[in-house]
Amino acid sequence: MDETSIILCVDDDSTVLSALRSMLSTHFGSELQVEFAESGDEALEIEAELRAQGSELSLVITDFMMPGLRGDELLVQLHERSPSTVKILLTGQSDMSGVKRAINDANLYRFLEKPFANDDIVLTVRAAIRAFCQERDLIRQNEALRRMNAELEEIVAARTEELVEKNRLLEVLAVTDKLTGLYNRRKLDELLDEELVRARRYEVAVSIILLDIDHFKRVNDSYGHAVGDEVLVGIAKLLRDHSRDADALGRLGGEEFVVVCRHSDAAASMVAATKLREVIAAHGFPGVGQVTASFGIATCRADDTAASLLARADAALYRAKGAGRNRVEPEHD
To answer: In what order do the strands lie in the sheet with 110-113?
Structure first.
């Protein structure tokens, strides 16, 4: 017993209490703190005082027949307050109904018949205290395990959330142009394939706008690649701000961008491209000033692949370049 255990002895016979006091003091000394009560009501008061002080009864030994609360009734009430307390019932009568009640409703540890033998009491008390300490340690261990499990669950949940977020970011990076945040070439090829299948299945129009920044090499040569990158980022932002939510935006590479216009025919995509051309030409880019872009447009045909659609838009773009730049050219029939 690492800690001092508290025992409560309850009997209306002071002679019995005195015998218990002498016997427990002789065999246990300072190992036990022994409290005495001459009635069930007094026993309940002592238990309440101990509980208020943060102490718990390890063991209660009570007589069965007492004025007021009988021993079995006392044990039932104590059990409601302190289920872990070990209960021993002393009885000089063969009233098994009370013993059964104490067993069923108060988790009675043992009952001893009067007159009791000192050795029997000592052995029973020692075993009862050991049982209480084991139960208390088990409760503490279970609580520690519960806390550890809760902490582990929190760690696992946090790690899982972290992994989910990292996987999400990896998925985004796998389809995103690192500089501009627009779709990369790989994602654009995949997306165009899907849109062409959808266009044929549902007989809806899909067009693409291909644009290339005019004289971009001069920007890099005159102002440096860092400034050139800022221009690319600025173009991407203008595309986001002035395109429909339904449109998909990507960077094919270098200074070339593409807008996938869902549910847009040639006329609608011409309007959209003209608007983007004007917005870019009117924008002032930090450190550079005005830049322009040339545009080529192509609309999905029945036998198109992503490559053939891009090729027609690219041909239209180069016609725009050859015609003086800063203009929009549709595909040739």
So the answer is: 32-37, 5-10, 59-63, 86-91, 110-113
pLDDT at 2 over 60: no
Q: Residues 250, 178: contact at Cβ < 8 Å? A: no
Nearest-angstrom CA–CA distance, 35 and 6: 7
pLDDT of residue 91: 83
Q: DSSP string spanning 252-313?
A: EETTEEEEEEET--HHHHHHHHHHHHHHHHHPPBTTTB---EEEEEEE--TT--HHHHHHHH
Verdict on whether the full-model pTM lies above 0.70:
no
Q: Residue 279, exposed/middle/buried by CB under 10 A (0-12, 13-18, 19+)?
A: middle
Range of the domain at 110: 5-143
Is residue 222 one of the residues assigned to a domain?
Answer: yes
> Which CATH number is 119's domain given?
3.40.50.2300
Residue 180, domain member (yes or no): no
Helix (H) or strand (E) holding 59: strand 59-63
Point out the catalytic residue in the list 35, 255, 329, 331: 255
* Residues 193, 135 within the same domain: no
User: Residue 255 catalytic?
Assistant: yes
Instruction: Flag whether 168 is in a domain.
Output: no
pLDDT digits (tens, 9 = 90+) for 36-88: 999 999 999 999 999 999 898 999 999 988 999 998 899 999 999 989 899 99
Judgement on whether residues 133 and 39 belong to the same structural domain of the protein: yes
